[in-house]
Amino acid sequence: YYIVPSVYKSEMPAEKATYDSILYPTVANDQIHYFSNNHQEYWNGNVKLEIYDMMGRALRAESLEISNGIIEQTLDVKELIDGSYKFVLTHKNGNVLDTKPFIKIKE
User: Fold this and answer.
1) pLDDT digits (tens, 9 = 90+) for 20-45
2) CA dist., res. 68 & res. 60, Å (int)
3) Residue 39: left if φ>0, alpha if ψ -120 to 50, beta else—which one?
4) Are the beta carbons of 34 and 88 closer than 8 angstroms?
5) Is residue 26 a contact partner of residue 103, using CB atoms and an 8 Å limit?
6) Model pTM?
7) CA nearest 36: which of 58, 66, 63?
8) pLDDT tens-digit series, residues 51-104
9) I need a labelling partner for 31 at 20 to 30 A (CA). Which of 2, 18, 53, 60 fits?
């Protein structure tokens, strides 16, 4: 069981804005944690957080509120079966803000 954070710089085509984000651990058994520190006012508001399996099926969705350009969320992934998944964050305007892969394993 390795905890390896994935840190990416993402470029948003609408504003050409960059932001830092992290999803950890990338190999998880019970929880994943997501943090994005984006001080762009443009992204404030409602976002949708979704988890997809590798077949492209949405398994989970929740709405979040971005305040001051910061998102910090912990997600319970215990109910997922072992496998590879994709975390997707979408703004209310439809723009995909971030995607991150992770693997779910048993303890």
Assistant:
1) 788 989 999 999 999 887 646 656 67
2) 25
3) alpha
4) no
5) yes
6) 0.75
7) 66
8) 999 999 999 999 988 777 778 889 999 999 999 999 999 888 888 888 999 999
9) 18
Give residue for tokens 């079966």.
Answer: 81
Distance between CA atoms of 84 and 101, rounded to whole angstroms? 7
Closest to 36 measured CA to CA, from 7, 77, 63, 11: 7
CA distances from 23 to 10, 34, 43, 53, 93 (A): 13, 4, 19, 16, 23
Longest dimension (CA), the chain: 42
Please report the beta strands in 16-57, taking only residues with DSSP state E, as ranges in sequence order. Answer: 17-24, 27-28, 31-37, 45-53
Read off the tokens for 100: 């991150």
Residue 99 structure tokens: 């995607």
Query: Exposure of 39 by Cβ count < 10 A (0-12 exposed, 13-18 middle, 19+ buried)?
Result: exposed
Alpha-carbon distance 12 to 40, whole Å?
11
